[in-house]
Amino acid sequence: PVGDTPGLDARAVLGAFAAAVTAPNLTSAALAAALPAPGSRWAVRDEVPFASSLRWSGLATDAGGWVLGAPEALTPHLSRPIPAAAVDDRTASGLRVLVLARATDPAAGLRDRDGRPALPGLDPVAVVALADELRPEVAETIARFRADAVALKVLSGDNPRTVAALATQAGLDVGEPVAGSALDGLDEQALDRLVARTTVFGRVAPEHKERIVTSLRRQGRYVAMIGDGVNDARALKAAQVGVAMRSGSAVTRDVADIVLVDDSFAALLPAQREGRKIINGIATSMYVFLARVATQGVVILAVTMLGLGFPYSPTQVGLTLFTVGVPTLFLTLWARSTPPDPHLLSNLARFAIPAAIVTGGVATAVYAFLYESVTQFIGSGRTPAQAISDFESYTGLTYTDADFATAAATIGAQTGLSTFVCLASFILILFLAPPTRLFAAWTPPVADRRPTVLVAVLVAAFAAVLFVPALYRYFGL
């Protein structure tokens, strides 16, 4: 209680006020739960719901006009000052401080002539202190975010010192807190400097939150904004990722990209890890896939220019199961939750282009050598009967057909080409996940030996394709 108000029970009045609110928020709900209203409910003639722009809410009732709001919002309208220590001491300890006041004139309204909310003259009745309860996982979550180089900033409508005290309890290095009014009038450069060095912002309005998010994005940050109220909606839309609480307003949930169903931002840590694994897995798949596609493009172009026919048969396309399908499946599954490569596209080019040129160049040489060798072998007149019989079964032609030598040379060269490209693709996996320094030309060696085991299994499976008749016929080898 503030001052001497005979016959007035401040706790009972506060409970009656909270019970009469028709647009409750978390604060009024906490008050109503802690201070049950005695007797009958107030008859409300008018209500001004709490808004971050006002920083107060009020009721015009049969028991007079009552207002609950931030001390600095009510002070200019109070008939006597509130003891500074009553507010400052509690604020410094991390408590949210409000003032309960009664209209000096019981018949006074809470709006001006135009119907806009306006405070009448007020008599202070009580200082109300509420504690925000930190969830058990908050400190650990913040520590892990900081370990992952994720910077956190707190934007609140509460007193900056209150917010700073709470943030300190949660493990943040708050520095000097800043009030939202300090942002007014700053140009973009001054705002960017202030936002970059500040962790806690208090008494911020919705437009302040939006400006802070925009400033962070302008500085090249990737911003996720977490909010629960209507006053957070603009900032959520301005951020790259908007995160809403399930208990928050419907408007906030509608504009958000993510809704935290348990109202705990600790859920963002596993979401971040999973997101990083997905991105890194897709990146690895792109390395494997683009290197393979680029190699095929180089081979097709070079072989066609040499006039040696098309270097692949339709059945041999199925070999991508070994060179692309299975590797990307497991490499994606085993991807690590490390920060994504910020230069992914340029690094893809740096890897895929040299790999395609080297592999495609050698593959073209293999194809041309085998094509000429088989052509000479068939046309030498000294070809063993068994070899001719085998080539007849492969090609579906007879030795006397005019196209027999060309068909035999093509299928022999295609087999050698596909064999080389498959083995080269397996080796490229070792360059993406090098087990030793021998393969560490692209990236440092990794402790995970699963990619190496995968390569060994793929080599064994491909060896079976090469030596099991049913399999090599199926793949056109």
Describe this structure in words.
The protein contains 17 helices and eleven strands. The protein is an alpha/beta fold. A five-stranded antiparallel β-sheet has the order 1-2-3-4-5, sandwiched between helices. Strands 6-8-7 form a three-stranded parallel β-sheet, with helices on one face. It has a three-stranded parallel β-sheet with strand order 9-10-11. The longest helix is centred in the middle third of the chain and has 38 residues, at 268-305. The model has no long low-confidence stretch (mean pLDDT 90).
Characteristic key phrases:
50% helix, 477 residues, three-stranded parallel β-sheet, alpha/beta
Please write out the topology.
Layout lengths: L9 H11 L5 H9 L9 E5 L7 E6 L2 E6 L1 H4 L9 H9 L2 E9 L18 E10 L6 H10 L6 E2 L4 H10 L8 E2 L8 H10 L2 E3 L3 H13 L5 E4 L5 H6 L2 E5 L4 H6 L2 E3 L7 H38 L14 H14 L10 H36 L5 H11 L8 H29 L17 H18 L1 H6 L3
Parallel strand pairs: 6-8, 7-8, 9-10, 10-11
Antiparallel strand pairs: 1-2, 2-3, 3-4, 4-5
Helix pairs in contact: 1-2, 7-8, 11-12, 11-13, 11-15, 12-15, 12-16, 13-15, 14-15, 15-16
